[in-house]
Design goal:
Blueprint: E1 3-9, E2 18-24, E3 32-42, H1 44-52, E4 64-72, E5 84-88, E6 100-104, E7 108-110, H2 117-122, H3 124-137, E8 145-149, H4 154-165, E9 169-174, H5 179-184, E10 189-192, E11 205-210, H6 217-222, E12 224-232, H7 237-250, E13 256-259, H8 266-277, E14 285-290, H9 294-302, E15 309-313
Parallel strand pairs: 8-9, 8-11, 9-10, 11-12, 12-13, 14-15
Antiparallel strand pairs: 1-2, 3-4, 3-6, 3-15, 4-5, 5-7
Helix pairs in contact: 3-4
C-alpha cells in the first residue's frame, strides 16, 4: 500500500487536533475517480463539524477541492486520466486535506482552463451557499433592496457579487477594514457595523442574507419590507439553532424567516464556474497555506476575520 501526506483529525492531538502525517493512499473503486489534489479550501463547515464531533469516516476534512484525475474506476465515463476537475466532497466523506482523494463522478465537474486550481477550490461550498440562499430561499429578483450581513467572508464576498449579477441594490455590512473590498465587489452601499447599527435604521430591505453577526432575529424581521425574506446562512452554532427554532414561528404573516444550507449540485457549480470564467464574479482569496500548516489555517478561519477564502496549496 502506497502512502501519502494528509491532515488527519486526532482527538488526542495538538490543541487544533489536526495532525500532518502519512496515511494510506486511497484506491478508487469501480465507480470512483482518484484525484491528485492541487488546492483545497477550508470552510466553517470543517471547524463546526469538529466542534460538534461530526468527524468524516477517513478523519480527513476538506470538501472543496481542485486537482487532476490520476486514475479512474472501470465504470467511470465522464472523466479520464489527466482531466482537471473541481468539486464539493461534503456529501461524499470529505477527504480533501490530503495529496490524493477518491470521489464519485457526481461530486465533480471539469475545471475550465481559465479558472485556476485555487479559484476552483475557493468556489464550491461558499458560492453554492450564496447562490442557493439568494435564489432558492430568498427568491431574489431584479430591483430589490438586498442587505448582506457579513459581506467580507467566503460566502459574503460571493453573495455581494451574485446579488449584483441579479441586478439588485446591494448593501453590505462589514467591519471598517473590509469596507473598501465590499464596495469593490459591487455593493452600492456599505455599512460599518462598528459605527452604525443597521437594525435601528428606517431603511427596509426586501431580502436580508445573514452570513454573520450577532443580531437578534427579531431585529432582522423589523427591517424587512412587508413581503420581505430573511435567510440565515451562517453565524455561531447558538445563532443557527435560534434561527431554526424561532424562524418558523416568526414566518406567520407576510415576512418570511428562513435558514439555508448549501446542497452539492453539479448544475449550480457549473453555472457558478461559468460566471467566473466569463469574469462576472471572482473568488476573493485572503490567504494561502501549505498542507502542513492546515491547523494554522483552520485557527485563522475560526476566528471569523477572514477576508474571503482561505486556500490550502497541496
Amino acid at each position: 500500500m502506497e502512502n501519502m501526506k494528509a491532515v488527519v483529525y486526532n482527538k488526542k492531538g495538538s490543541p487544533e487536533k489536526l495532525i500532518y502525517c502519512d496515511v494510506d493512499k486511497p484506491v478508487p473503486n469501480y465507480n470512483e475517480v482518484l484525484i491528485r489534489i492541487v488546492a483545497v479550501s477550508v470552510n466553517a463547515a470543517d471547524y463546526r463539524s469538529m466542534k460538534m464531533g461530526l468527524i468524516p469516516k477517513r478523519r480527513i476534512f476538506g470538501a472543496d477541492i481542485a486537482g487532476r484525475v490520476e486514475s479512474v474506476g472501470k465504470n467511470i465515463t465522464q472523466f479520464k486520466v489527466g482531466d482537471e476537475v473541481m468539486g464539493d466532497l461534503a456529501k461524499f466523506g470529505f477527504g480533501g486535506l490530503a495529496q490524493y482523494v477518491t470521489a464519485p463522478e457526481k461530486a465533480l465537474i471539469i475545471k475550465p482552463a481559465k479558472v485556476s486550481h485555487e479559484e476552483g477550490a475557493a468556489l464550491p461550498m461558499a458560492a453554492l451557499t450564496a447562490l442557493q440562499a439568494l435564489r432558492d430561499k430568498g427568491k431574489i429578483h431584479k430591483g430589490q433592496k438586498v442587505l448582506i450581513v457579513g459581506s467580507a467572508g467566503g460566502v459574503g464576498t460571493f453573495a455581494v457579487q451574485l446579488a449584483k449579477y441579479f441586478t439588485t441594490e446591494v448593501t453590505g455590512v462589514c467591519g471598517s477594514n473590509n469596507a473598501l473590498q465590499t464596495s469593490s465587489l459591487g455593493a452600492d452601499f456599505v455599512i460599518d457595523y462598528s459605527k452604525e447599527d443597521f437594525t435601528k435604521s428606517n431603511i427596509r430591505y426586501d431580502l436580508i442574507l445573514a452570513v454573520n453577526g450577532g443580531y437578534p432575529i427579531f431585529a432582522y424581521k423589523k427591517i424587512l419590507t412587508p413581503n420581505g425574506i430573511y435567510v440565515m446562512v451562517g453565524g455561531s452554532i447558538p445563532q443557527i439553532f435560534k434561527s431554526l427554532l424561532f424562524g418558523w414561528l416568526l414566518s406567520f404573516g407576510s415576512k418570511k424567516m428562513k435558514t439555508a444550507t448549501a446542497k452539492a449540485n453539479k448544475q449550480d457549480l457549473e453555472f457558478l464556474t461559468k460566471l467566473v470564467e466569463d469574469g462576472k464574479i471572482k473568488p476573493v482569496i485572503d490567504r494561502h497555506y501549505p498542507l502542513e500548516k492546515t491547523a494554522d489555517a483552520m485557527k485563522y478561519l475560526s476566528e471569523g476575520h477572514a477576508r474571503g477564502k482561505v486556500i490550502i496549496n497541496v
